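Duplicate of earlier report; Enoyl reductase (ER) domain-containing protein input re-posted below.
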Amino acid sequence: MADNTTPRAITCKAAVAWKPLEPLKIEEVQVDPPNSTQVRIKMVYASMCHTDFTCLKGNTLFPMFPWILGHEGAGVIESVGEEVKDLKVGDNVMIFYVGECGKCANCASGKTNLCSRYPQIVCDDETSKIYSKGQRMYRMFSSSTWAEYAVVESNYVVKVDPRMPLSHACLLTCGFTTGYGGVWKGFKFEKGSSVAVLGLGAVGLGAVKASQILGASRIFGIDVNDMKRDIARAFGVTDFINPKHFDKPISQVIQEATGGQGVDYCVECTGVASLLNEAIASTKMGVGETVLISIPPEEKGELNYIPMILGRTLKGSNFGGVKIHSDIPKIVEKCEINLGDLITHEISLADINKGLFEYMKQPDCVKVIIKF
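Output:
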């Protein structure tokens, strides 16, 4: 007699990127059962990030096609591998692109969130469980959330606090948490510090919220879009600055607003080379710190910050330095805000191209979520 409890392949829909910068195609795909250490998740919500669009362009970091994009999402576990101990069928979960074993040299060091045993994998089809038209699909960050089902290594999965809607939980799986962690983990933050955040998308607003929670006395929010002013203030910005309204560098505007001193900390969320220069120059000479948390756009630019460092510190960050099993529950507990305020557009999977090519380019867009 056949074992009806054994998971089998599922046929469902997914948004497939066949070629660079071409519209995604909604295809029928087959999603195999999880292996012994994986879980298969029925997606409920996924969200869009500018990194997804960067991957669609195709470059030296993301040259492979075809693949299924999406690295932010939340859903319900449909089946589990036999070695999975802490997760079960029916659990509401979030999917992340970094893991945490807690035991490797990196995890034990306390210096980084990049686990050696469960590293960030940009794209690897050898463990992919998704096929379309007889072809194995590459997976973005080993998750590919723009599909009705995803198969993920269980260590990259975290249970959702039952108080949090899945539509909000998916927002914590990349952007907002990256910005929040950039401040929380990136700086030795003192109450009363001053902060500047360049770029007020979901990442920047996460940095703003962390600064507010940690007791910043003044938070400068910098964005070229005046439509971000109200939401920036709602998240904690005290001084909103649109560089287009000034005929001087933004670093000079911030220096002048702080009596010529500059801010204690700066978070650069745009990836624009010239703004990294401005971010560093906005901080206090000798003690100012800047954290870079962004993927650069196609634009070319020179970094001229070496002459202006003058004792300042510049550091990079991956997922804001956040450890998914140790830190995500703390962020959920601290963030007494309505993450739903970040959601400006909600679409179905069928409208994926409208979200990616139209809504994400609109000036009022903060976050586009996909409801399955």
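The mean pLDDT is 91.

Merging into the original ticket.
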